[in-house]
Amino acid sequence: MRKKIVAGNWKMNLEYAEGIALFSEIVNMVKDEKKGDQLAIVCAPYIHLNSLAQLGGTTVAIGAQNCHQKESGAYTGEISAKMIKSVGCEYVIIGHSERRQYFAESDELLAEKTIIALQNGLTPLFCIGETLDERNNGSYFDVLKGQLEKGVFGLTAGDFSKIVIAYEPVWAIGTGLTATSEQAQEVHAFIRNEIATKYDLEVAEATTILYGGSCNPKNAAELFAQKDIDGGLIGGASLKSRDFVDIVKTFNS
Ligand code: 13P
Q1: Tens of pLDDT along 131-153?
Q2: Distances in Å between the alpha carbon of 72 and those of 77, 82, 108, 116?
Q3: pLDDT for 180-234, tens place per residue?
């Protein structure tokens, strides 16, 4: 059975007290809603991580949104995977399209970040996704394949089995323009097939593949009902406790 995951990505939002307040609400609400085999994760800005990890307990797991590619050293302003792990985080988003776009993070850099995260016991939520141009000109399968090959297909099967993939079409992020369930399922099936070709069927079947991009309580059920969609990576809707928990609840209905 693949792990079913709903992960929130708060991005660069919420002051410290606001984050604590939102997260406390989420933990209280999720306690009553979550089924045993599914997982709720909140990926917060660095300043929140320590406190949230203590508040989350076994109910909601915590992730960071980025890490540096080196173990430690003279990299002023950066945060290492080891530091993230040390405050009780279990997850880290790697390769979000906003990092690729605004911080020029290359596939090669993201491969390094993935390895350092794994070495420090963090589970990478590794993001891939095509732009609107790439979708419209029909090159999106090649783009996604390239992102997988350069970013994570250098991993051994053992290490690959520890990561989660998130498909986030760039044109659907923060735009209110969700991929249809058919569009998302088509890509998720493609990703799983690429994993099977690179590794084997068993690894492919065990890989959790999340969908992200304008996912909300209204469209989550149809998306998550698709055979190759194992949950979501939620931006805007994760900033409202009721919406986020309603998306988590989708797996129960
Ligand atoms: P939205 O849900 O706001 O579209 O953001 C998706 C996302 O980027 C999650 O990482």
Answers
A1: 999 999 999 999 999 999 999 99
A2: 12, 8, 19, 11
A3: 999 999 999 999 999 999 999 999 999 999 999 999 999 999 999 999 999 999 9
Q: Hey, which of 6, 11, 239 would you mutate to test ligand 1's pocket, going by the most ligand atoms within 8 Å of its Cβ?
A: 11
The answer to whether residues 225 and 182 touch, using CB atoms and an 8 Å cutoff, is no
The domains of the chain, with CATH numbers, are: 4-252 (3.20.20.70)
Q: Transcribe 15-70 into DSSP letters.
A: -HHHHHHHHHHHHHHHHHH--TTEEEEEE--HHHHHHHHHHHTTTSEEEES---SS
Q: Using CA atoms, how far apart are residues 206 and 208, in angstroms rounded to an integer?
A: 6
Burial class of residue 200 (count of CB atoms within 10 Å of its CB; 0-12, 13-18, 19+) = exposed
Closest C-alpha residue for ligand 1 atom 5: 235
Q: Provide the 10 A C-beta neighbour count for residue 98.
A: 20
Q: Which residues line ligand 1 (CB under 6 A)?
A: 9, 96, 168, 173-174, 212-215, 233-237
What is the C-alpha to C-alpha distance for residues 183 and 24, in angstroms, rounded to an integer? 35
What does the alpha-carbon distance between residue 240 and residue 217 come to, in Å, rounded to a whole number?
A: 11
pTM: 0.97
